[in-house]
Amino acid sequence: MCGIIGAIANTNVVPVLLEGLLRLEYRGYDSAGLVVTNKGLERVRTTGRVTELSKLVVQQKTQGFAGIAHTRWATHGVPSERNAHPHFSGQDSKIAVVHNGIIENHEAIRSNLKDKGFEFLSDTDTEVIAHLIAFNLQQETDLFKAVCLSLAELQGAYAIAVMEEDHPERIIVARNGAPLLIGVGKDGNYVASDTSALLQATRSIIYLEEGDVAELSNDGYRIVNCLHNRLGDPVQRAVHESTLSNEAIELGPYAHYMQKEIFEQPSAVANTLEMVLNAQSISPNLFGSEAEKIFSKTSKILILACGTSYHAGLVARYWLETVAGMSCNVEIASEYRYRDPIADPNTLVIGISQSGETADTLAALNYAKKLGHQYSLAICNVPESALIRQTDLRFLTRAGPEIGVASTKAFTTQLASLLLLTVTLAKMHKKLSADDEKKVIAALRHLPVALQHALQVEPQVKIWAKSFAQKRHALFLGRGVHYPIAMEGALKLKEISYIHAEAYAAGELKHGPLALVDSEMPIVAIAPNDQLLGKLKSNLQEVHARGGELYVFADADSQIAESEGLHVIRLAEHAGLLSPILHTIPLQLLAYHVSLVKGTDVDKPRNLAKAVTVE
Ligand code: M6R
User: How far apart are CA 351 and CA 357, in angstroms?
Assistant: First the structure.
């Protein structure tokens, strides 16, 4: 959470810092700030968003050739100007620090530094970094060395950028457990939490590794690694040319990123499945060169994930059991990491994450390894992420950058990937005939078109959204593989429209939640024409009989007729294995349009951030 950008160049860097912050705002938007060197360190901070910061910068005519900036998702200390970054320390020569992550031992360091006379002006863990560097600068006059010495005392995850008033000709940056990239430019050098913030200045990117500390000047950079030496061993890191297109990170004709990302799903899924769509058969190599060996030893699956990615795992469980005959356990990563589960070396552990940065998912995966699980696979949307780097196997969902906080195209591409995995395992374990494999490939080939078709229900969903926007609560019902889709629909609605929404397996209704049903409670049901449709229809009758208002997303062949208090939107005919992927689309559209009617912030819902890099 939190976004960092820094720039040092031959020209005024303030426009680059502001543009970078706008790109990074999805990472946190509680407050924003920047500091530039201009006859001293000039700092501007606000509890508002980046647009507010821009106004202040214009009013104050802030300019400078070097600067660091930050957009915050509050962890330690409420969102306020005094808690906004950059944080300062030092009297004769000020130190400025921006930080993404959490310093776990901040209390001990704080009390130590207070004893030494340092005065704390914020409630943040970040401020201890600034004072620690200032303290080390009293013994070691070189900022680079003082930063390295300070880092040796920090526990936790961080990406930081540091400037010193007396030496405005350099920025020191470091990473440990949070992403940080250097952008190598012609007229300057840059640093940021992700590539999208750097594209305005350069496409030449260096991905810093754990323990790296770098010094940037306007005409060069150097990098050391401090994992085995407090003062750092010099290292070379490759410069990559980013192929990320500006189109991928810009809104284009859309009103919101969420809207763009919903409508990008046909192409996102097509990109994810590209290697399969033209193939005659599916190869395990799609998951990595070791996949054949590892999959042949795999007898069970354990999926670890959070939020929407967890829902993708829940869908996969049904597929893995039914198609591959493989037992599958799906765990919320933040719970798994604090239980005492029994490890099994033949279980393949799968981490699913859009960002690949989610702290709980990363920690759960590490914990699974410590417990004795041997093999792991990442399903992830960010190629350079920590998750991708810590697993034996990997599959990239090629959805392109997902910027809206509510996950949409990441989910459907995760599902497409998990279906591919299911089929691969089924094939390797002789649960799938060559004919059936061909049928699945044909179905996957059709998926982008089917998604396009599903998007066409939007005008009908818009009409429903108007009545939903008046409600305070909603129930979502599904059965079988569509139950996790109901969970995902409820999560989308509560996340961006702030309407309280709960999902239930429809068979559970009469065990309690039916008591909630009255004319004020809209009930969304997912009613595909599958083997559970008959059961679901009985559940819907139970609701109808009690005056509940039903909003049913059915298949064209589900045979559910509209009546008083029972509204139906029909998708195409039942799509078999693909059905949960297609039934996701109208639920995303519903949440989006309810949010529009309510006027909430679609892309940046309150209290949330895109990548949850803290526990
Ligand atoms: O990046 P990840 O997929 O690991 O993120 C997991 C959750 O934080 C994420 O899916 C969250 O639930 C979304 N905001 C839901 O729309």
Answer: 11
Which atom number of ligand 1 is nearest to the Cα of residue 495?
A: 16
Which strand ranges, in their side-by-side order, compose the sheet holding 3-9?
41-46, 31-37, 66-72, 3-9, 188-192, 181-184, 204-207, 240-241
**Tens digit of each residue's pLDDT (9 = 90 or more) over 540-587:** 998 888 888 999 999 999 999 999 999 999 999 999 999 999 999 999
Contact present, 173 and 160 (Cβ < 8 Å) = yes
CA–centroid distance, residue 356 to ligand 1 (Å) = 10
Give the integer Cα–Cα distance in Å for 519 and 531.
29
Angle at 58 between CA 56 and CA 59, to 5 degrees: 65
Q: What is the pLDDT of residues 348-382, one digit of tens each?
A: 999 999 999 999 999 999 999 999 999 999 999 99
Sheet with 171-176, side-by-side order of all strands: 87-89, 95-103, 156-164, 171-176, 212-217, 220-225, 233-234
Bridge partners (DSSP) of residue 233 are 225
Q: Kindly state if the Cβ of 413 falls inside 6 Å of ligand 1.
A: no
Q: Are the C-beta atoms of residues 512 and 465 closer than 8 Å to each other? A: no
The Cα 487–Cα 60 span in angstroms is: 48
Which one of 2, 148, 306, 380 is the catalytic residue? 2
Residue 202 Cα to ligand 1 middle (Å): 29
CA distances from 552 to 300, 514, 525, 544, 561 (A): 35, 17, 5, 12, 10
408 CA: nearest ligand 1 atom: 16
pLDDT at 141: 85
Contact present, 474 and 499 (Cβ < 8 Å): yes
pLDDT at 281: 85
Q: Which two tokens stand for residue 341?
A: 């589960």
In 48-99, alpha helices (H): 50-59
Which atom of ligand 1 is nearest to 610's Cα? 14
Q: Which of 176, 600, 613 is nearest to 406 (CA)?
A: 600
Domains of the chain: 3-248 (3.60.20.10), 251-451 (3.40.50.10490), 457-598 (3.40.50.10490)
Please report which confidence band the pLDDT of residue 177 belongs to, taking 50, 70 and 90 as the band edges: confident
Residue 595 Cβ inside 6 Å of ligand 1? The answer reads no
Q: What letter does residue 119 receive in the DSSP assignment?
A: P
Catalytic residue among 94, 260, 492, 610: 610
Task: Name the DSSP class of 455.
Answer: H
Residue 463 has pLDDT above 80, yes or no: yes
- Pocket probe for ligand 1: among 261, 310, 380, 407, the residue whose CB has the most ligand atoms within 8 Å is 407
Q: Which helix (H) or strand (E) holds 70?
A: strand 66-72
